[in-house]
Design a protein that fits this description.
With 391 residues, the protein is an alpha/beta fold. Helix 10 links the parallel strand 11 and strand 12. An 8-stranded parallel β-sheet has the order 3-12-11-10-9-8-5-4. A two-stranded antiparallel sheet has the order 1-2. It has a two-stranded parallel sheet with strand order 6-7. It is 34% helix and 14% strand. It holds the Pfam family Oxidored_FMN. This is NADH:flavin oxidoreductase/NADH oxidase N-terminal domain-containing protein. It comes from Pseudozyma flocculosa PF-1. One of its GO terms (molecular function) is oxidoreductase activity.
């Protein structure tokens, strides 16, 4: 059986399509006017130049394949500086070579009238010392499976880090991005500051007091907003995830104040990108890390709508298929639904959902193959499948 046949065997069944649902109504996300609400999630794929961290022609092709008229793509997580951590094949945005490589990506997406935002990344305590000079964190609590040689960021370090974020933001604008997303989720540095399970500082940037733990993330958001403008800025959070040994005993006691700060301090913030509680950072299965009690993003959504009066939208990620995405958009008419794995396997995902065409299933074994075209740019569109006689 061919790889294509294997993928087709696991496709979602055909249905009537979502053309008449809110999923295909226009929506304004900050400075970006979208024509539909099927967005591409930030997904690390290690296809960039392993020496320079610059996007290759393969990366340009990947994003261009998934660009649509008025559709939103968010890039894979991108290092803001060499000190933010590293691993072979992940991109950066601190050098002119990287800026030039990303400019090819944004030009290709804009040629199809698409929108593309860059996600900013700092690994913090999750960095591998094999590839990173230092392993930084908000506090001194290591991952049980990670490096024990953690360096807690000093106040001077934090000031330098703010400069690094500002510089990265200027470079992203030079590269032609429509906006930037701060990665504040999944147990990386910003999340490490937000949560007491990773932040055991005793100064004004940590400890039990939530206002201390949000202080540095708030400074980062303000620094980025000063460079790109609130309407070109989004923030990602994963309040309920246990990925990388995170999750507060009472998540909303941290993430509601964080959301309130974001919407009060930045009333024109483009969006908050929330990871659903039903999804894990690295699992194919819904409910893999399901908590003992039900969690819901509803309190966060309600607070955003109340505080921002509709200016700040919600992006929602987490194990959606075509039907559940359409149903969600009809229930929550100011949300954008974010797809990851299905968008990997279906470069024409919005059109498949719009027309009720079956979705190809992803092949996780191809997700992280440095430099490989396989599983990255070789997935056919629905029309190509028809022409090949596989439908």
């Amino acid at each position: 059986m061919t790889e294509l046949a294997k993928a087709d065997k696991h496709s979602s069944p055909a249905w009537e399509g979502a053309a008449s649902t809110n999923l295909f109504r226009p929506i304004q996300i900050g400075s970006s006017q979208l024509k539909h609400r099927v967005a591409y999630a930030p997904l690390t794929r290690v296809r960039n130049d392993p020496q320079t961290g610059a996007p290759t022609d393969l990366v340009v092709e990947h994003y261009a394949q998934r660009a649509t008229d008025g559709g939103l793509l968010i890039t894979e997580a991108t290092m803001i500086s060499p000190e933010a951590g590293s691993m072979p094949g992940v991109p950066g945005i601190w050098s002119q070579e990287q800026v030039a490589g990303w400019k090819k990506v944004t030009d290709a997406v804009h040629a199809k009238n698409g929108k593309i935002w860059m996600q900013f990344w700092h690994l913090g305590r999750t960095a591998n010392p094999k590839y990173s000079k230092n392993v930084w964190s908000a506090g001194t609590i290591p991952l049980s499976t990670g490096s024990k040689e953690i360096r807690q960021l000093t106040k001077d370090d934090l000031a330098q880090l703010l400069d690094d974020y500002r510089s990265a933001a200027r470079n992203a604008l030079d590269a032609g991005f429509d906006g930037i997303e701060l990665h504040g989720a999944n147990g990386y540095l910003i999340d490490q500051f937000l949560q007491s399970v990773s932040n055991n500082r005793t100064d004004e940037f940590g400890g039990e007091a939530v206002e201390n733990r949000i202080r540095f993330p708030a400074q980062v958001v303000a620094a980025l907003a000063d460079v790109v403008g609130e309407e070109r800025l989004g923030v990602r959070m994963s309040p309920f995830s246990r990925f990388q040994e995170m999750r507060e005993p009472e998540p909303l006691q941290t993430f509601l104040p964080w959301t309130r700060h974001l919407t009060n301090a930045h009333p024109r913030l483009a969006y908050i990108h929330v990871v659903q509680p039903r999804i894990s950072g690295a699992s194919d299965e819904e409910g893999h890390d399901a908590p003992a009690v039900p969690d819901s993003v509803a309190p966060i959504r309600d607070l955003v709508r109340q505080q921002s009066r509709g200016a700040t939208k919600l992006l929602i990620a987490g194990a959606f298929d075509a039907r559940s995405a359409a149903e969600h958009a009809d229930r929550h008419d100011e949300d954008v639904v974010v797809f990851g794995r299905y968008y990997i396997a279906n470069p024409d995902l919005p059109e498949r959902i719009r027309n009720g065409h079956p979705l190809r299933h992803w092949d996780r074994s191809t997700f992280y193959i440095p430099g490989a075209a396989k599983g990255y740019v070789d997935q056919p569109t629905y029309q190509q499948e028809r022409e090949l006689g596989h439908l």
